[in-house]
Amino acid sequence: MSALYILPFDHRGSFQKMLFPDSKELSEEQKNVIRKYKRVIFNSMLTIGKNRGYDDLAILVDEEYGADIQRDCKKLGIRNILTTEKSGQKVFDFEYPDWKDHLLEFKPVYAKALIRVEMGEDHRVQNSRLKELQDFCEHQQMGFLIEPLIEPNEADLGTCGGDKKRFDRELRPGRFSEAVAEMHAAGVMPQVWKIEGTETREDMEVCSKAVFDGGRDDVQIVILGRGETQEKVDQWLSVSATVKGVNGFAVGRTVFGETINQHHHGQL
Fold this sequence. Notes:
By secondary structure, this protein is α/β, with parallel strands linked by helices. The chain contains eleven helices and eight strands. Strands 1-2-3-4-5-6-7-8 form an eight-stranded parallel beta barrel, surrounded by five helices.
């Protein structure tokens, strides 16, 4: 199974907050600024690919700001991953009511669903939508990628003294394992899990075991960047590199976030 090195720039809400923090509704001119920066990011992928080939590379971009980039990927033979979720939702919902038509138009190598999971909540509606997406992908011979962001519930925060970083270190791997078991029980079994990194190899092994237990044998795990520092992402990748199933990463804002922000505000 080949490595999967993803350049993700499907951010929508976070791009808006970064570039236009005072705007609730973006004008078409502001949207075009975001499209321009996403094109700059994509051009960096082209530069890398021309030097080393595209075999293990992939891009993840949304349709709203990156439809032309998606089309260019198909022409150039670069693996394309398309976002399906509506941005900023607590419960997964589709970006477009006619989401099937959008997937058929762009024919991504993987359809991606970002979800938020808080254990103790009722996830039946979310899991039902994910299963519907998965079934459609299988029928159309598209891959399916899930990005689960594990969030603490009130009891978790109480245990960790309200410290979200402590939750990440001490409880998140176990909560991730519970979340995956719940999704597997609902029949949700993607080919690729795009997951948050862990502080230790042992914690990533907990996550890996969860993904393979009761799931697919051919599953892949890629480590996301979550906008963390380069040092933190390096640590996550280092401790995860030899864990079963981990064979790639999806690092975006860590690479380009600060630079784009500074350029947009005239600091570069």
